[in-house]
Amino acid sequence: MLNVKDNETLTRVGKGTPMGELMRRYWHPIGAAAELDERPTKQVRLMGEDLVLYRDKSGTLGLIDRLCAHRRVDLSYGIPEEHGLRCMYHGWVYDETGQCVEQPFEETVHPDGRFKEKVKLAGYPVQEMAGLVFAYLGPQPTPLLPRWEQLNWDNGVRDIAISELPCNWLQCQENSVDPVHVEWLHAYMGAYRSTDRNALAQRGSGLAHQKIGFDEFEYGIIKRRLLAGKDFDDDEWKEGHPVLFPNILLVGNAARATFQFRVPVDDENTLHVSIYCHRAAPGTVAPRQDVVPYRYVPLKDENDRYILDWTFNQDYMAWITQGPIAERDKEVLGQSDVGIIMFRKQLKRNMMIIQDGGDPMNVFRGDANELLHSPVENVKFGLRAATRYVPPEAGESKAVADIEKVLATWAGHQDTSE
Amino acid sequence: MLSTAENDALTHVGRGTPMGELMRRYWHPVAAVAELDERPTKQVRLLGEDLVLYQDKSGTLGLIDRLCAHRRVDLSYGIPEEHGLRCMYHGWVYDETGQCVEQPFEETVHPDGRFKEKVKLAGYPVEELGGLIFAYMGPLPAPLLPRWEQLVWDNAVRDIAISHLPCNWLQCQENSIDPVHVEWMHTYFARYIDQGAGFKGPQAVMDLPKHKKVGFDRFEHGIIKRRVFEGYTEEDDDWKHGHPILFPNILLVGSEVSVTMQFRVPVDDENTLHVSIYTWHGAPGAPTPRQDVVPYREVPLKDENGRWIVDLVFNQDYMAWITQGPIAARPLEKLGASDVGIIMFRKMLRQQMDVLADGGEPMNVFRTPAPPEGIKVPLERVKFGQKRPKLYIPGEAGYSTDADKINDVIETWTDLEDLAPARGEGGA
Questions:
Q1: pLDDT at A188
Q2: A91: nearest CA partner in chain B
Q3: Is cis: bond before A141, omega within 30 of 0?
């Protein structure tokens, strides 16, 4: 339980708030690169700021204020030029720093005028990686865009699923330091919703949690669980499972990995970006993937109820129903929630580091951008590597055929460890 | 750039605010006559007041408070009687002044009671002209409904398009004193949209010359705006005749063949009823088709992806105005040489507010009848160096149900050229 003030401190992400400043120290995915192939501008809202992402004809990406400085119309209707984005209303052009670089009529009337030099929108750094576009809204110098190993597997295929969740980012991320919900929300309720009533007892008991544990590590928190019938040598306890500070969950093994980014849109909305990375078995070659496909995940069914047929959608339902900002002053925490308490402390500690002028956890600087290795379990929940694609969330993936080819390269492997 | 207080003063239209009082001195179109043929009541919201427009069985129009005085239910569900509108809940009847004239159960119980005499809703004058219904909400006596000649022409065919815009009226009207946007939004951007709005089509190209110069003059009824395009001179119509904006909230665009009036009617501080009335004028002496009812349509604003429709001229304007926000944040804008007309217009609004505060009558309040042919306003003959195309082209989304009649009227002009359809001149 938190008091109202502590809850606000952990959830408010506007510029100048403690959490807003912490979150501004990180690169956040804001869309799939493929979205800009279809339409070269995209409305983006990130940490309460209304922005437009665009790609100009030279291929340069820009992320600038959404409204034109002149008459304040929406630049997501603007026109990409060779360099920069042109406002459709009076033709002003902005470059990727937000600097106004052309004002056609002003230049006609005052050829020697310097008005445009005084006009500047906010402009933020953006970079592509793994088919995603990442943005950084914090102070300069910009840190490195973290190169998580699995995101950069070169012999593999990827798939992106984006969900627009009407709730604060923190309740999404807290879910990832909460092992026990898997037994109930995903197993027991999942079975309850299936027609196979036998599965109810079976699946619920198969994941019965006996003990949970948490350790801070270099990149965040390792969570551990001891399931009924297992011992401390089991991967779920021994290796544990990484939650990457401040807002990423990494689940996977040597064959595949899913990153879930919980990107704060504003205090009451989250852009949930899942990227699925499938790696081909050693000695085999993955299909060539020129463009990483993406989809927007449907959240509601035809009756306007939350979709619950997929694991991630079960999570989305839980987070959204906690409210736009979960009322942590009314919650009642127990033994299942010690990871959540640890995570909140970790957040507060890193806010303090910023106040003291330091770089918080997972801000990387330097010349060489090395791959970052985070430990993952080899065999999760005792499951062998699947050879069939099972979508974890709603919507049609356009990458199914490629993913299944990659899964097939693992046929004959006992498990997914190398 | 305005201060927040100045921005509020120019945009807030509630009763008692300076702009609300100025706007209450004018007649505003609130519906097409044809709407009441289909259903005899219409919900109207005007200058922040919730009203109901109705036509009773005798043909009288009324515009009264929307909620019944008794139990405050919505009279747009009411029943038109021979005289007045009856509330569907307990049968009370109101006349067009808002006076309650019948209370069936009250009169049964107290045949001599005078309760109904004490019950009165607001009731405002309404008048028909050109297929539109206009309302006046200011102090009495009501001034004359301005009979702009285009609304009076009898050898003409008309068409009405109504849009519900979720933004303040002023950003709509400012657009009309901003000539430069035509070069960009209605040509450069329009081409870009035509070509697929991505990188797949050819380069976006300009097909309207660059603006070299813009100029603005106050005239009897508002502002004349002028422009000189590259390759043209001050002898061309676009500068010499210029182009009228009628104070306070009307744009008039066109030629002797066809004219569009755009009324930007303040619904409340954050909404505008945009009423376009298109008039096609028959050539002198030529017969025009008979039009018993002026058709109307409600203009679609969004596409199937929830984005603003931008492939028609007026809809491009609507997108710009709406994306400026419910009330444009003028304290944050950056005005330049393209915006001197906007600055002049804002000054004119403030001057007229002062006239009102001093007890005078602002511009375009008429007390003496216009001649039978209506109030004449100067217009260009040849706009943007273009002849009129010999074809009906909708200025905004949707299509006129009288397109055939419109084309018949256009046919009466023998000197028109078979040009490829221009993109129209809306919003110009």
A1: 83
A2: B184
A3: yes
CATH class of B38-136: mainly beta
Token pair for A341: 């308490």
When the candidates are 2.40.160, 3.90.380, 1.10.287, 3.30.450, the CATH number that belongs to A143-408 is 3.90.380
Nearest Cα residue to A67 out of B140, B79, B68, B320: B320
Residue reference for tokens 């009649």: B405
Distance (Å) of CA B93 to CA B67, B85, B99, B109 = 12, 5, 8, 17
Q: Is the ipTM of this complex over 0.85?
A: yes
Chain A residue numbers with beta carbons less than 8 Å from the beta carbon of B327 are: none
Cβ of B316 within 8 Å of Cβ of A88? The answer is yes
Neighbouring C-beta atoms of residue B283, cutoff 10 Å: 18
Distance CA A288, CA A281 (A): 15
- Give residue for tokens 């445009």: A116
CATH code for residues B149-411? 3.90.380
In angstroms, what is the C-alpha Rg of chain B?
23
User: Would you state the structure tokens that stand for residue A98, as one six-digit string?
Assistant: 């937000």
Number of other CB atoms surrounding residue A174 within 10 Å: 23
Q: Are A157 and A286 within 8 A, CB to CB?
A: yes
Name the minimum distance, in Å, from the CA of B2 to any CA of chain A: 12
Question: Is residue A292's pLDDT more than 60?
Answer: yes
Could you tell me which chain B residue has the CA closest to the CA of A59? B199
Q: What is the mean pLDDT of each run of 10 residues along chain B (428 residues)?
A: 95 98 98 96 98 98 97 96 97 98 96 95 98 98 97 95 98 97 92 73 60 96 95 90 94 87 98 97 89 97 94 95 98 97 98 97 97 88 60 90 93 64 39
* Homologous superfamily (CATH) for A34-129: Rieske [2Fe-2S] iron-sulphur domain (2.102.10.10)
Structural domain spans, chain B: 38-136, 149-411
Instruction: Please tell me whether the peptide bond between B141 and the residue prior to it is cis, using omega within 30 degrees of 0.
Output: yes
| Distance in angstroms (rounded) separating the CA atoms of residues A235 and A230 | 9
Selecting from B185, B332, B336 the residue whose C-beta is nearest the C-beta of A103 gives B336
Q: Nearest residue of A to residue B188 by CA position?
A: A88
Count of A-B CB contacts under 8 Å: 93
The three-point CA angle B326-B331-B335 to 5° equals: 100
Kindly list the residues from chain A whose CB atom is less than 8 angstroms away from the CB atom of residue B188: 79, 86, 88, 91
Given pLDDT bands bounded at 50, 70 and 90, which one contains residue A368?
A: confident
Interchain CB distance below 8 Å, A72 and B336: no
Using a CB–CB cut-off of 8 Å, the residues of B that contact A are 178, 180-181, 183-185, 188-189, 192, 197-199, 204, 210-214, 308, 310, 316, 319-320, 323-325, 328-329, 332-339
In this prediction the pTM is: 0.90
Mean pLDDT of chain A: 92
Among B180, B206, B225, B339, most A C-beta atoms within 10 A, so best to mutate, is: B180
Closest chain A CA to residue B336: A106
Query: Which residues in B lie closer than 8 A to residue A99 (C-beta atoms)?
Result: none
